[in-house]
User: Fold these one by one.
Assistant:
Number 1:
Amino acid sequence: MNYMPGTASLIQDIDKKHLVLLRDGRTLIGYLRSIDQFANLVLHQTVERIHVSKKYGDIPRGIFVVRGENVVLLGEIDLEKESDTPLQQVSIEEILEEQRVEQQARQESEKLKVQALKERGLSVPRADTLDEY
Amino acid sequence: ILEDYLLVEDAPLLEEMAEEDEELDLYNEMTFGLDRDSTEEDATKPLIPLETSPELAKGVAEETEAGEELEPGVAEQLEELGEHQEEGGMEVEVEQVSLELEEEEEELGTEEQEEDQEPCEEPNDLGDPAVMRAVQSKPTLESQDSAVLESRIGACWAEFGKEDMVAMDPAVWGSCPGSIPPHHVLEDKAILQVLERPPPSTNVALDFLGSPVQRGYGGSPRLKHPNLRLMSPKSFPQRFLQQTAGYASPTPFQPMSPNISSPSRPLAMHFGPMSPSLDPALFFSPSASGQLNLSTPSHMTQLHPQHQRILTQRQQQGGQAQSISPKKLWSPKVDPYAGLMTSKEKDWVIKVEMIQLQSENMDDDYYYQAYYHRLERKQVEEELLGGRSKQEPPKLVTPFIQKVETYDSVVRIAGSLGQVAVSTCYSPRRAIDAVHHALVEEAAGSHRLRALHRIEKLFLQLLEVEEAQRKTSLAPEKQQPCCQEQKSQEVEHIYQALQIRACSSEEEAEDEFLQLLCVRKGKKLTARLLPHLTREQAEKILLIITHHLPFLMKKDVLDESLPLLYSPLNEVVSGMTFSRLIEVLQEMTRPLPESPELPLAMALKNQFGISLLYSLLSHGERLLSSDMPLEPRSGDFETWTDTVFLVARELSQVPKASLVEPLFLPSNLLSLFCRYLDKQTIHHLEAKME
């Protein structure tokens, strides 16, 4: 920002640890190694972090090349504050299990909701037929 | 000397790596400019391919021994190393050549001159077609004015240290701590070089050379030992690249001179000397260092003038400014993968970003524009208050890069599966838009998807119309009428595409226009289009909407986006004739086949409906109470009175709980009712309407 005030650039973020949130909901944490004009990212030593309530688990993934349009947001991680979190890290197996359980619960409640709305004559449009792109 | 460098045991592996490096170099060179990159790649690898070519060593050895005698050796070296250098760009050669500290610049001068004689055109043009021209590099003064070279090199070389050479990012090499106090030394290895604008007295062609005194280099880690020799043949010259006279830093933005007609190569390649008419281009260091000696030649860029000013100011202050940025504590353990993205690449990205800022479209870079507008306004205020002399913004005259009007960012090769990516892209927005347009073309299956596609397509057309209109409003007076005509044609086209036609209530779900109106964006499109339409067309839309109001209201229960249409429709209503108004009102009072309720009654329970109704009534009242001749048709007044009574009746009957608050409550409604109704009813209605 300092050389182009009024604009944002990822140049200053290179070689720093970042947290990247993707459009599909995944959270990646890795060192930002390279970017381009589309904000495509090269993440190094990337870890995919799965969060379920107060727990999280990290899956090491290696190197990611992320297409810019799939990034929702990203931010630098302060290495000093990184460990200062109320969240509890658990093993991969555990977090995957927790995630599965959570997904199941969500799907069930969604089913009930849709049913209830249908009974009242309302239909919530499915995601693939939403109005705006 | 050799022992300063790492030795690699694996010779064959090295060779393979070297080959890959060559290809990468070629690619990098084409995209970013000279092949500095092999060095930089090497730097990040723990192993450094170490092939000290005998000639190189010889050349270096020779240099250290003698002065002028080295010329031939060096020249030879140049030829060797020149294989990847296709550019005739001076600085490249110069960079390649700058081998030694002690080297006399005459040598360099000669080398450069020799190289001057072999201008090359980049054969494989991977350049961005958006770049129309490239400037042919010309021999620069640096090759002729040895005095400048010498001072610069001398200053830089004093600072080299051997321990940093291996691991660090060559970008840092560019930093010449020469005249910079030690505390300016930046520890961030991924720092770009910073070049300062050379003193105005130097010859223009030399402009991109900075004066060593002013040079605000980011500073390198203290480099003590000048023994930079004997690195791998590729890396060796490149390390010195930075030190060259000229611009050690990667890729300055060298604005292209518009009158150069030989596009020898795309901009990508050209971060080189430009035609003499250009001013120094500069580089900015994106590092955290406070020393941003950034300035772009004012007449060369189309950056916002305020931005321009900031850059020049910074550059002026650069000399005095101390390193402002907090020195980030580099973590004690050195990140071995740092610097993967070379400074050249970073510069390139920054360059593309800057190019993107230069857009004629006001919608792009809203924040950039807004920031500078605000800054300007503040400055103007300050000037008014402080009574300072007005700072003239630098005049933006020539574009810094000429973009081609038609740009095929998406290349389709027959028989290929999809699109071929273009390797360089100076207009990412255009590229993204191109893809977007491609997507929209796809034929969609379902009704709804087709409606959505139509909306998108028409919306884009409307945006283009508005854009064109914005531009013509800025254009000189005489051009405006023909643009107006074109605009009306395009608006007409959009209107026709909406397929507005009368339809019965059975056909409502199938009607194309109504389908559009059921979608929020379709309403937005219509709302945005209305101001551009002729009165007749706009009134037609109003009529259709009012006619199908129950249907639309029903469809809008979830979305609640009908109010989007209120404002533009209100405008349409305020311009209607009395007869037309009656026609519209009749739509609201006609009985419906499926329901005992009048549309009007339904409207009272819908925010948009009630607002529209009030708007219509208010306009009628306004017309009646004005002195304007109404020219009513026969029966109009009766219909009007009937309508008012109907409204009053419905209003009194509808329970207050069901009555929705309108978007706007016109003030003359009560007076309207007063005309026709008794006091008691009026009070009742008043209470309801509150």
Note: Chain A is about 20% helix and 35% strand.
Number 2:
Amino acid sequence: MMSTTASHGRVMMLPSPSRALQNQQPLIGSDMFRLKQTEPRGSRLVVAATAKYKGTKMREEKLSEMIVEKVKEATEVCEADVRSEGCKVAWDEVEEVSQARADLRIKLKLLNQDPLESFCQENPETDECRIYED
Amino acid sequence: MCISYECDYHFTIVLRESLGGEEEEEDPQTSTTMAVSTIYSTQALNSTHFLTSSPSSSTSKQVFFYRRHQSQTNRRFNTIITCAAQQTVVIGLAADSGCGKSTFMRRLTSVFGGAAEPPKGGNPDSNTLISDMTTVICLDDYHSLDRTGRKEKGVTALDPRANDFDLMYEQVKALKSGIAVEKPIYNHVTGLLDAPELIQPPKILVIEGLHPMFDERVRELLDFSIYLDISNEVKFAWKIQRDMAERGHSLESIKASIEARKPDFDAFIDPQKQYADAVIEVLPTQLIPDDNEGKVLRVRLIMKEGVKYFSPVYLFDEGSTISWIPCGRKLTCSYPGIKFNYEPDTYFDHEVSVLEMDGQFDRLDELIYVESHLSNLSSKFYGEVTQQMLKHADFPGSNNGTGLFQTIVGLKIRDLYEQLIANKATAPAEIAKV
């Protein structure tokens, strides 16, 4: 069974690990995986999850907005004095929020489901757990 | 048949069923065949046994162990019941960008089996990850100042003044002794400290973040520590990959952010690497002249010598200096290929062994070929490292030294855990039953 996943713009064709390693012998020749530098083609069997719940969508947007705001703020503060405490704290905030944004993206990809999934199973009536519709 | 055994308070039942005279069958699909059951979960036991306990005195518990019916086969079963004090193994992982090392954590927890997930039903912004054997705590949860507080005081998150090391020490110590704690939650979205969450003592506790080795008391609690040392060029390349898609960012802003944080990073975070048992150093490749894309990496696994329960990986001949290019007649690699180095060295006045990989894996057979030439991997079967890498082939670093060494460190931690548990066992009782 071959499955394709997209990762960082590359397509990897993977043989099913359990089948491949059942014999626990070194694998050569036909059982390979290839990293291709091309864009994924139409036939993607596994697609990375996007936000399903309103809460996740809100977090994504909020974090992206915060990045814009805080970069602007840091640029202004540092114009005055690049070695001030205020300057380094401002850029540290940018880093914190950028990482949080990236973590959310990674979570969506690695979990292949909305990070709020288990929370929303228990609390389906909250505003955050409304199904997001584009 | 009923066995009763008295154990001290806080105990784990180590149940090992071995087939007398035969090799224990191992299922290569599961990462471990340890059968360890704690008194508060009987899931690990199969249906022919059940475990009950009756609390007698306040300082000891009596355990009655029943076997429902005879085994159908005529193989001999040796049932070893060992009462061991609950000992949580504590691992420290230091990395910039706090708890963003989700790939390292997932590789690590995957070695022990099971996927690490956020605690179910609790605060959705929790940073904690829990699997069967491991719990991963993000040390940002021990911020004493929230985002507003840090702005007011003029300190970054890197600054020790923004962190409560007393609380960190108390709680890690409690978890290590088998006591559950109410741990605060630092919410990275709001920048506030949320209501605490209950953390049960796990078998393996991983504390991950900026300062796991900063405080000396916390350092003493660590059974093993790892420092992820990313060079400036690679850090820049990775942050570009991470941030360029965001509206707010540009090359300038990414650069400015790294520069502004550098003084605090060099003063407070970087010095921790001298305390680490293993350092994973990530540098730009030397195989491609003037490469600045940061896609091909040179990764060095610096392993401290003389650490209890930790035997460094080596290439061909332990303690010697080896330079190895696996690509040649038996193995064809595509550009830029793979180059390995192994040598003894000194690192901050400690004896270390350094295993280095430069380049990329392009095919499965390259990976298995390399694995077959490495020694002291602490793998349980041939090809385990390759299998683990394949399991997470979509994780970043799966085709280079970062994934390889993270996986190997995971196996080393498993090995350390098993040795620690075996050594902590006290007063074993052995009963043979036909």
Note: The CA atoms of residues 37 and 45 of chain A lie 18 Å apart.
